[in-house]
Specification:
The protein is an alpha+beta fold. It folds into two domains: 91 residues, 2-Layer Sandwich (Alpha-Beta Plaits); 99 residues, Alpha-Beta Plaits. The protein contains eight helices and twelve strands. Helix 5 runs antiparallel to helix 8.
């Protein structure tokens, strides 16, 4: 199942200037690693899904950094869960610092983190542009991204936009949000960028949203895929 939609919503009682924040259910864990041979590591996980089954992952996959790399072999393994309860329970149960010997030979662990989606999105991995950003109003930015997604689609493009807040991000992710623009291919991503720079009507929404962004910490391009789905 390559199509997992965060369709169930819950109300979370966080108060920001007397506004209640509505966020979709679900959570995603990430394990950022360095792999000497990315293809070999990914193929091993596809053929040996026992770890994903043991931790109760609904869907798991990988994202390989293809532009903007911090180091060779940069990538991460992600697991999708129906709730933060399940995701944080997995963190307690699984220690990536003590892997099976086979994993230890295939990659070295950099860090683990958990992310909460702030807007509903289709989990359809592909060609993904990731911004790590510091926000002054996460829900105002998220609402703008919902508006932007609808406008890009109305212009005839296929795109999923996602915004995530970190949980347990450590020095790598704390204080930053992840914004992802997810496309089927690099050419599709490039087409939307061409439209943006040509002054498409949706360009103004992105520009307006920048009032909620204090800093763009980094911007990378990743190629992502599903490698495991619970039966």
């Amino acid at each position: 199942m390559n199509h997992l939609k965060f369709t169930f919503t819950i109300l979370i009682s966080l108060v920001f200037s007397s506004l209640a924040m509505a966020a979709p259910e679900g959570a995603i864990t990430t394990l950022t690693v360095q792999a000497d041979d990315i293809n070999k590591y990914v193929q091993y996980m596809k053929k040996n899904p026992e770890t994903f089954k043991a931790i109760g992952s609904d869907v798991a996959g990988v994202c390989v950094t293809r532009a903007g790399n911090n180091y060779p072999g940069e990538m991460f393994v992600w697991n999708a869960f129906p709730s933060l309860e399940k995701a944080l329970g997995m963190i307690e149960a699984y220690d990536p610092a003590n892997p099976a010997p086979a994993f230890d030979r295939l990659r070295s662990v950099k860090y683990a983190a958990v992310f909460k989606p702030l807007k509903e999105f289709d989990l359809e991995p592909g060609f993904e542009r990731l911004w790590r950003i510091k926000l002054n109003d996460e829900m105002a930015f998220t609402n703008k991204m919902t508006e932007l997604e609808a406008a890009i689609r109305a212009a005839g493009n296929k795109v999923n936009l996602a915004v995530f807040a970190p949980v347990g991000g450590g020095i790598h992710e704390t204080g930053m949000h992840h914004f992802r623009a997810i496309f089927k291919s690099g050419s599709e991503a490039g087409k939307v960028l061409d439209q943006f720079y040509a002054g498409a009507s949706f360009s103004s929404i992105w520009i307006e949203a920048q009032q909620y962004v204090d800093e763009i910490v980094s911007e990378t391009i990743e190629v992502c895929e599903v490698i495991y789905t619970a039966k």
